[in-house]
Amino acid sequence: MTKNVSLIILSLSVLAASSFTACSRPGKSDTGSQAKPNDTTPKDMQGATFAFQPVSIDPGVYFLVSGLRDGRCLDLDSNDDGDRRRVQQYFCNGSQFQIFSIANGDQPLRYTVHAVGSGYSNPKYLGHSDRVGEEPPRVYALEGSVAPLNLRWAFHKFGNGTMALRNDAYKWCMDRRSQDSDPGGSIQFLDCRENSYQQWGLQRIQMKDIKNTIDTLSEVLKAMEKEEKSKKE
Question: Domain holding 104: CATH number?
Fold first, then answer.
């Protein structure tokens, strides 16, 4: 019962958040020089390259909503429980697998992104795994023992308020695979471009929303207990 209640609280708290609240402060233009992965996105959908300018993000717990506006969110694959867990896009459902905690990194304007669904006893962070044979390379949730650069991210804010996330190790951005449009499609790394496949809305979970949700859930549980009791009488 306790475990189920915790999961319900986490799920409802995400659904309670209603606005994008990421704060930004322009930083120095920063472009990478690594070899580029093979971009298989159709040419007319790739968008233009741009000067990546890292901005400041308020550390906190977020829901990452796809800029394609098709009801998909960044999601930790619940069927993958290995040391290197798959990250995908899936229907926004408010589960713990779609909650990500953004924290300050060890460099200015750099951050780690903890996949809350991986737990806290052995937390995993979004990053680049150097997995052989993947082209373009995919985004995974990895253990914190991985090289820090692989797990470190910078954020760029677009004019529409969405964000691009760029990995510090390879200077590539987090991208929805255009070929994987079905729910469960992979998330990959590509050269940073101004298109919706690389745009993510940061929807923050507020403490007041969590408190209101807990209060509401408490009343629901009381009603359920009362109903169960009446059945036994």
Answer: 2.80.10.50
